Give the backbone structure.
Amino acid sequence: MISKNAVFMEKLVAKLGKAATRAISPKLPLLGAALLFTFLAVTLIDVSRSPMTSWDMIAYTALAYEDDAKNKTDLHAKTWATVEENLPNEDLAVLTQGSPYKVRQYEDPEAFYSVLTFYRMKILYVELTSLLGDLTDPVRAQRLICMVFTAMVIGVITYWACREHILGYGPVIVASLLMLGFVPMAKNLSPDMMASFFLLSGMYSYIRGRDLLAAAALLAAFLTRPDNLAFVGVFFVFAAAYGPGRWIMTALFVVCFIVYKFVISGPEYVGAWIHLWFSHIEYVPTLVGFDPDYSVGMHLQIMVNSTIQAVLRETWIVYLFLLSSLFFGFIKIHYLTDRSRILLFAIFASICAKYLIFPHYEERFQFAYLAGMTLIFLMGLHAQRQSETQSGERKEIPLS
C-alpha cells in the first residue's frame, strides 16, 4: 500500500515539474537562438584558425585567373604562386607530393588545365571567387566566401526555426548540424556551403508560398552546383503532380535544363562518366586522351563502394534512415501543410535519385537536403504536440 508521504512527494514533484516547464518554456526560443549563434561563433573561430586545405581550392583559384592568364603555362604559374603564398610548407607538401596525380598537377600545365573542366561548371562560385579575387587573391576570397555563407546558412536555419516556432528545439538542430558534418564543410573551401544556403532558402520560400523567390534561390543553387539539377527535376515533378507552385517550378526546371545542356555542350566538357571515374576509381594524372567506356558493372561497383564508405566513414545514410523512421513512426503526416509534404517527399526522392546517378558518399553533398528534412520533421513534431496539448486542455475543462 502506498503511503501518504509517497503520494504527497509524487504530487509535489509533478507540480514542481509543471511549474519548471511553465517557467522555462517561454524562454526556450531565446535559448535555442543563443545556442545556434554560439555554435556559429565557435565554428567561425575554428574556420579562421584552421581552414582545411583541399585540391579543389587550387582549381577554383586557377579559374579565377583564367580570363587574365596569357596561356596555360602562365595560368599554372600564377595559380601555384598564389597557393604557395597562402599555405604553410607542410600543407603545400600535402597538395604537391605523395601521388603521381599531385606531382603531375604541380609540374605539368597541360595536365593541370585538363582537370579544370570539372570545376568550371560551378558558375556562380567561380564568378564570385573571381570578382572578390580582384580585391584580394582567390585563396583569401574563397575563405571569405566560405565564412560568409557559413553565417548565412545558420541565419536561414534560425529564421526558418523562428518563423515556424521551433527555435525551442535548438539543441536538436545543433546536434543535427554536427552529425551532418557542418563544421568540416565550413572549413572546406568549396561551393558546398554557398549551394546549401540557396537550397535552404529556396525550400523555405516554397513552404511560405513565395514561389518566385524559391525559384530564384534554387536557380542560384543550380548555378553554384549543377548536380542540384537532380533536386530541381524531382521537385518539379512533385509540384506538377500535386499543385502548389506547379507552373513556376516547371519554368525553373526548363531554365535549369537549358542552361545545363548549354554548359555540357562546350568542347572542354568531358562527360559525367569520366567525372564519376575520376572521383571514385582513379585520379588519373591528366585527362588528355582519357576516355573510358561506360560500364554498368563498374557503375554498380562504384555505388557499392560508395555506400560502404558512407556507412563506415560518414553519418548521412544512418541519419537519413533514423530521421525517416522517426518521421513515419511518430509524426502524423496530416500535421504538415501541403507544401511541406511536397517538399519532404521531393527531398527524399531526390536524395535517392541523385545517389543512383552520381553516388557521392560524402555528407557535404547531402547536407542541405537532410537539414531541410530535419526542420520539416521539427515542424511536424511541433504541430502535433500543439494539437495534442490543446486536445488535453479541452478534455480537462469539463472535469474541473
About this structure: Residues 393-400 have pLDDT under 50 and may be disordered. The first helix runs from residue 4 to 24. DSSP finds 21 helices and no strands in the chain. The two ends are 28 Å apart (CA to CA).
